[in-house]
């Protein structure tokens, strides 16, 4: 049996979900018999580019009047749906991207239509065409034979030569919103006579990230058992942590309950969920709590004001980079501890706990706008004679301020941050050393090209003179910032 996304593929423009800005123009051109000879459909994967191309192929060959095309029921439309129409050819440009392949296409497009309609060539993943192949296709696009239509579909239109773009009618497809996807999933569940919780379908729709094809593939896994679809079943099928435990974790983080945070994260990690997945789902749960607070609607909330909640989300988002190197429980704990530290100075509504004997308790938060002084525990080796006398003036440390490398990366642009990501940084006194392994030669070479930008950024964040050492497979480069 065919996959559900193939069985559920629309056979008329009315059945297409979303993409109204594309449908309206195409339907109008079909009604007026003004279909062009070259189209470019671009957009994210799974949003209907190839489906729309097939509908256009059906429309120009449909046996019904112009106002009813495509009907989806005549012989010609059925042939297109079954991939058996002799005048409609669909090729994967990723595996047919050479000059020889395009030359073969140029020879075939000159053949007459076998059914007396229009010949349609659909090139999927068109950005995979080589430069020479694109140039070979250019002449055919510019002066096509009578009754020939080319439809190029791609997720990366910027990789196509401008000469190709200028000869096509370009339609940009958008991601579908969650409600559009959920409505289609509900329809498929009704057709399959399977009950499904709205929360479960909403979770599937969100996980699809705007791609209807992905949502339908996920739903197929849930429909396989023939049983009612619950949110819990959807979480298991999608490999996501249970939402109840994520909300309990978010509540514990918001209230500063470190013992509960550690217990929950350890249990979830032992259950097989990666540290990266847990921190991502926790951030999304906190994001939902923030929007519930902003909109005043019903939903999950935590005991933090909006400023504190935004600061916590921002901190956890910055910590995603640490999982590039290691994706273990320690990194998860470290990221959550930074999130807890980010809440310092914000009022908490959690009930106070009794201090444990021998353990230093946290100080009450300082009022907003005031810095919280650092507290250093006495060294275990300190003797009573080394402790200051009561009333004696406190010694002020004379250590040089250290540079916060996290702030440097946060202030960097998108490209510079990407080049910095695999680097292992060490800061010793006034020397910043960035270490790149042999597998990150590209990042190392690109950072060398942008070292002036990095030096200016360090100077702006640190406010002091630092020596910068960029150490990689090709040797170390040392310059003073």
Describe this structure as you would to a colleague:
It is a single chain. 45% of the residues lie in helices and 10% in strands. It has helices at residues 4-7, 20-31, 49-61, 75-81, 99-108, 131-142, 162-165, 178-191, 198-207, 212-223, 231-238, 243-255, 258-270, 275-295, 306-318, 329-342, 405-411, 414-420, 441-449, 451-462; strands at residues 38-42, 88-92, 119-124, 148-154, 169-172, 424-428, 431-435, 467-472, 475-480. Strands 2-3-4-1-5 form a five-stranded parallel sheet, covered by helices on one side. A four-stranded mixed sheet has the order 6-7-8-9, covered by helices on one side. Helix 8 packs across helix 9, helix 9 packs across helix 10 and helix 12 runs antiparallel to helix 13. The protein is globular, with a radius of gyration of 30 Å. 29% of the residues are buried. The model is unreliable at 346-388 and 391-400 (pLDDT under 50).
User: What Rg do the Cα atoms give?
Assistant: 30 Å
Shape: globular
Number of strands: 9
In what range is the share of β-strand residues?
5-15%
Spatial strand sequence of the major β-sheet:
2-3-4-1-5
The helix/strand class is alpha/beta
Brief descriptors of the model:
5-stranded parallel sheet; 9 strands; 10% strand; 481 residues; alpha/beta; 20 helices; single chain
